[in-house]
Amino acid sequence: MRYLNNIMPKTDFTTLIIGLVFCLSLSSQAYGAISIDGVLDEPEWEQAQLYSDFVTVEPLTGEPAKYSTQVRLLTNAEGIFIGFTNYQPATTRSVNRQFPRDAEIQADRNVVSIDFDGTAQAGYDFTVGSANSQQDGIVTPGDYSADWDGIWYSQTSVEGDYWYSEIHIPWTVAPMTNSADGRKNIGLWFSRVVFDESLRFAFPNAYYSRTTFMEDWQPLEVDQVTSSTMDWFPYISYASDLYDGAAANSNNDFNGGLDFVWRPNSNTQLTGAINPDFGQLESDDLVVNFSAVETFVTEKRPFFTENQSLFSANIPNGDQALYTRRIGAGPSGYGTSIVDIDLATKLTYFGKSTDLGLFVVSEDSANGGLGGDFLSSRVQHKTSDLTLGHRLTYVERSALDREATVQVADMIWRKSENMEMRGQILHSDISQLANPMNAQTRVDSQDFASWVNWSYAPNDSWYHILYLSHYGDDFDMNDMGYMQRNDFREFFGSTSYDRTDFPDSSSFLSSSTVLEYGSTETTDGDRLSLWAELDHSWTFRSTRQLALEAGGAAASWDDQITRGNGMLANSSRYWLETRYSSPRGDDFTYSVRVNLEYSQTEKLALNINFRPQLYLSETVTLGGRFSYKKLQEWLIWDFATGQLAAYDADHFNLDMRFDWYPSAKQEVRLKFQWVGIDATQINSYQLSNTGRLLPSYNQASDFSLSDTALQLRYRYQLAPLSDIFLVYSRGAYFDTEEADQGPRDLLQMGWDGLQVESVIAKIRYRF
Question: Which of 23, 89, 155, 268 might form a disulfide with 38, Cβ 3.0–4.6 angstroms?
Fold first, then answer.
């Protein structure tokens, strides 16, 4: 294939592997008379269904597309074949940057969205950049998840004033219901992004912000294809711990396992893993968290992202009833050691009106380990305007004598084409017997939580949201879910207005005004927050973006900062923010965010965030993020003295990334992150009976810390979802009870304090 002209640099290890699989990755994907090579020259394309009436949806004007876009579609026993013909005149700059699989494609691109059942319940996104970068995800009403990887094929080409994309989506890429008569209806949505002009064209006229987005997709009747597939994903990995004091004592480890995906028919799928490899091939972002709220970490492990849409359990406030990062991480409060996973399996069935799912994982609990057993079930019944469902999560940790059950009843009601209501009722039941492993702590609690979300879009300009929630004092879903806190009631509202009717002579392309407001209180009625903010943003025809935001919050209580040692009376606070993004098609792009916040309690806080991106070529990118925060009186809980302490603090955060794509199948990524804090103690405080700060004679100490992480990763794609990885990782940490270290010394000491260094080689291949 043309995109294999550059073969990866050869080492002894990779030369052997490439020699074994070279024949599998050397030729184009061909299906009958159609070859996926980015050139629509087969005669079959002349007989394909043609879609060409594209309209502008970014900005959301509905006017005919500025540049011609044609989509041809045909189906056969192998799947759906789609060909885009994109007119790109020489006067318009083409942005043909290459990105890794599933990264956000900041370039010209084509998008195919398919609802395989035509029910407007779930759609699958397939995005192809003009340099053949791929991204996929799952669209559900009001939500989008990028944590899904499908097996599909694409290629692109350029000729004169046109660029082309050719896509093959097998029928086996996603589960779908069976039809009784051999014919079924699917829904289609095509879109095209002209990146340099911030334009998106679509067919049909549908868009994400509309409550009827998925209902507006183009219907198409196709022959039902019944297929059965069995995919095996064996892997072998080698890990070498380079940080062990002496090379002779270093810890080297070979590992192997198997993932499999069985589709006995089009609507049923069984996914399983034996001795799964859940080691990190992509490092998590560094976070230093001094708050009482747990850090949320996104999922990257293949088993937990494949075929996961039915189990998606997002709550509008950021909580999740099913948070798969709990699995393999050990029980909360018992350290951060990784727990091995023996077996994992997942079964889904998609019926015409009812969907079923079962999810089971067993951790290693041998030799007194803290491993547990996890189960989640899902039932979802769909009608034309109402979806009802039930979810159950269950965790048992025998070493802790602990069982945790959460049941969830949920509802989605589309009252009209402009209005939608969503809601859930949740119940938790926690039982734990006292034993030495859990510090003789007995737990027997049951409680409820609930929420409802109303959204209304009378037209394309206005959009309204109202959200109400209640979490009981003893409600707890953190054994298998993610919950920021319990014991509260919350109200949130949002109204947005988008303007797109600027005249052609105007420098503005569109603008958006958003008013948001909310209130939170404990179940006893103590106010935790009462706030409002107004945000106005402009998008210029040059693709520059500018935004201004102002907001304020009334005096309130903070019942978490003291970790259960009283409630702090916070003063009112106010904030101003401005954001700017440079023209996005330039070789050097950047965005800047400046936030200024003031309160009587913590005085002035300044936060500056700078995100540069330099495209050295279409295959080489250097970018990242630098942020600096100055806190005049940062108030945190000091565990050493058991009281609150205020600091004059500087926060530094650096994220640098280098991406290079020697060929379409190769990826080299260098990622470096640094978090540094330099904090000078100002005062220490006790709380009065009224929650006011009283100076304390028991002073806390100054402190500084520095945390660094570096990862160098090489990836070679043997075939879709089949890869070779070579990964070098390094982590270091430093802290001291001294301040005024300065950013240069902090960075140096954070680099020198080596704690983790390893090399991992892994091969995963799909059969």
Answer: 155
